[in-house]
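Retro notes (design track)

What went well: tokenization of the new backbones is finally stable.
What didn't: we kept losing track of which sequence belonged to which structure.
Fix going forward: every design gets posted as structure first, then sequence, in one message. First example under the new rule, 333 residues:
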């Protein structure tokens, strides 16, 4: 194994810090890229002898070239994962242009491998109800929101770089688990439901996966992933009603949840967005786009990752329990 450092963007993020920990546990040195001023708490406890913390913005192409230089492998995880931001341009800047900057730097430096973190958001939904796989064309431009669209565009950028650098693309499902300091929209939904801030639900489908399983999938993609190939690192396919039932069974959630038509939920999301746009400038509880996206059957088949990478997932109840315990221990609940 090479002694050159491994560059990880988004290193202090939810998935990123688990990737960093696994790499250092293998005895590898990680050059961990943090945004200027980013909260570094997720990197606490990782062997400092194996960790080189550096600041860098993926929008700074020159800085990315300097940071990639001398590295053997690049894991690109930095992204904006939000359902709403005051200026959506930042989502496209980071998730699309930032990806191009990192991939260009990797190609120029001649790194051995790039593992690019995409998302299930870059894959479409089948009309026949069969879980989507890596070949399902993207068809969600209208029925989604800026994050989803940006991840699709970012994945197209990564695919375009495959002739120039050995890049393997991984698409995580909706991750839950310890270390979600943001929290991400997925984690925030769990927190809001358990706290009683969300009391309504609507028809829809989700794919929940443990964040540590996703991190292991990243390392498997470096080891076994094919150049230019995409792998869905997905877990358990559920309806929203199924997830609520599991939260009652596993976590003891007791308060009532009321079913509402999707159209009503979308209208409420639209109204909350108007308040956010014009008054609070803070991410609303739901948005029209996030409701439109989640109301579809977001179910995915991870067979390719299982067969080619050896990817496995742990039981859903274990993932839910670990996430809830971490949120409770860290004051989110």
């Amino acid at each position: 194994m090479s002694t050159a450092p491994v560059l990880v963007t988004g290193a202090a993020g939810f998935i990123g810090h688990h990737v960093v920990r696994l790499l250092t546990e293998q005895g590898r040195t990680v050059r961990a890229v943090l945004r200027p001023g980013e909260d570094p708490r997720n990197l606490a406890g990782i062997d400092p002898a194996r960790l080189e913390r550096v600041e860098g913005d993926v929008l700074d192409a020159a800085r990315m070239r300097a940071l990639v230089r001398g590295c053997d492998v690049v894991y690109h995880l930095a992204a904006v994962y939000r359902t709403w931001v005051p200026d959506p341009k930042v989502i496209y800047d980071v998730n699309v242009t930032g990806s191009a900057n990192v991939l260009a730097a990797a190609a120029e430096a001649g790194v051995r491998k790039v593992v690019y973190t995409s998302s299930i958001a870059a894959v479409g939904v089948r009309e026949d109800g069969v879980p989507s796989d890596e070949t399902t064309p993207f068809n969600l431009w209208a029925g989604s929101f800026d994050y989803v669209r940006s991840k699709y565009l970012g994945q197209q950028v990564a695919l375009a770089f495959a002739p120039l650098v050995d890049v393997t693309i991984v698409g995580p499902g909706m991750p839950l688990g310890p270390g979600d300091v943001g929290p991400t929209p997925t984690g925030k939904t769990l927190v809001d439901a358990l706290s009683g801030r969300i009391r309504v639900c609507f028809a829809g489908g989700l794919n929940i996966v443990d964040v540590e399983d996703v991190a292991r999938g990243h390392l498997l993609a470096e080891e076994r992933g094919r150049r230019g190939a995409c792998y869905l690192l997905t877990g358990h396919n559920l309806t929203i009603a199924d997830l609520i039932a599991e939260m009652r069974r596993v976590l003891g959630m007791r308060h009532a949840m009321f079913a509402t038509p999707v159209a009503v939920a979308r209208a409420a999301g639209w109204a909350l967005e108007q308040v956010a746009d014009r008054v609070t400038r803070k991410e609303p509880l739901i948005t029209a786009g996030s409701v439109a996206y989640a109301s579809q059957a977001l179910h995915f088949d991870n067979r390719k990752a299982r067969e080619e990478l050896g990817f496995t997932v742990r039981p859903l109840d274990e993932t839910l329990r670990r996430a809830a315990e971490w949120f409770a221990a860290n004051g989110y609940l």
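Added context from the reviewer: The mean pLDDT is 96.
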